[in-house]
C-alpha cells in the first residue's frame, strides 16, 4: 500500500506540473502550447486521482490533485473584464465560424444566422464560392456589406466580415508576425461606430510558433491602440486563456463565452472537443446572451453573442 500511495503522489505531482504550464510564456518546447490547452483533461484525471487517493488513504496525493483542479480552473473560468455599462437599444448580434476550407454546411450556417438573427458574420477559411452560396439564400441576403476578397479555391487564408449594417473597411497596420487574413470594419450600429476585427492567427505548430505568439501579441497591441471605441474581435484565435499571449490579446476585453467557456475544437475527432479557441471578445458592448452552434463539415463550433451598444 505504501508503494501505491507513493505512485499516486508522484502522478499527482506530475499532473500539477502539467496544469501549471499555462503560466509559462514561451513557445518552446514545441509541444508546450498543446499541453497548456489540456486543462479540462487535467481536471478529469485529478478527480480520478482524488477518488483513488481516498481509497488508498494517500492524503498527500489527494491534496495535490485538489491543487491541480484549482490551478486548471484558473485558466478555464472566465471571470474578468465583464463590461460595466447600461445596455442601450442598439443591437448587434455577432457569429463567427472557422468554415474548415469552406467545407462547412452552408444551409446550417444560414439556419444559425436566422436563429440568432445575426447582424455580423465572421468566417475563417472561407472562399468566394462559399460567400456567394450564403448570399444567394434568403437569410444570407441580409449581408449587404463585406470586408473584401477571399480566395477562390480551398485555402486556410480566407477571412471575411459580412454585415447587414452599413460598414466601411478599416486599414489594419501590417505586423511582423505572419497571419491569415484578419480584416477590420467600422460597422454603423444605429449611429454608433463599432469596430469589428476578424481574427485568425497562425496555429501553434512547430513551423509557426513564433508567428502564433507574435500574432496574438500584435492583436493585443492593436486593440489597446483603439481603446475608447466599442470593439469586437472575433474568430479562430488558435488559443485560449491557457496561453499567455491570448491573455495579453484580450486584456481589457471580455470573452462573451461566459463563466465556463464551451470547448470549440476539434469537432471532427473520435474524442470530444477539449479547447475553447474560438472567441467573441468585446469592449464597450453589453452581453445579453451567447452560445455555440455545431455546424456539419466544420472542425470548429460556431460561436455567437447577442450584444447591445452601451448607453453610457
UniProtKB/TrEMBL annotation:
<dbReference type="GO" id="GO:0004527">
    <property type="term" value="F:exonuclease activity"/>
</dbReference>
<feature type="transmembrane region" description="Helical">
    <location>
        <begin position="35"/>
        <end position="52"/>
    </location>
</feature>
<keyword id="KW-0255">Endonuclease</keyword>
<feature type="transmembrane region" description="Helical">
    <location>
        <begin position="59"/>
        <end position="79"/>
    </location>
</feature>
<keyword id="KW-1133">Transmembrane helix</keyword>
<protein>
    <submittedName>
        <fullName>Endonuclease/exonuclease/phosphatase (EEP) superfamily protein YafD</fullName>
    </submittedName>
</protein>
<keyword id="KW-0378">Hydrolase</keyword>
<dbReference type="InterPro" id="IPR005135">
    <property type="entry name" value="Endo/exonuclease/phosphatase"/>
</dbReference>
<keyword id="KW-0269">Exonuclease</keyword>
<dbReference type="GO" id="GO:0004519">
    <property type="term" value="F:endonuclease activity"/>
</dbReference>
<dbReference type="Pfam" id="PF03372">
    <property type="entry name" value="Exo_endo_phos"/>
</dbReference>
<keyword id="KW-0472">Membrane</keyword>
<feature type="domain" description="Endonuclease/exonuclease/phosphatase">
    <location>
        <begin position="95"/>
        <end position="300"/>
    </location>
</feature>
<dbReference type="InterPro" id="IPR036691">
    <property type="entry name" value="Endo/exonu/phosph_ase_sf"/>
</dbReference>
<keyword id="KW-0812">Transmembrane</keyword>
<keyword id="KW-0540">Nuclease</keyword>
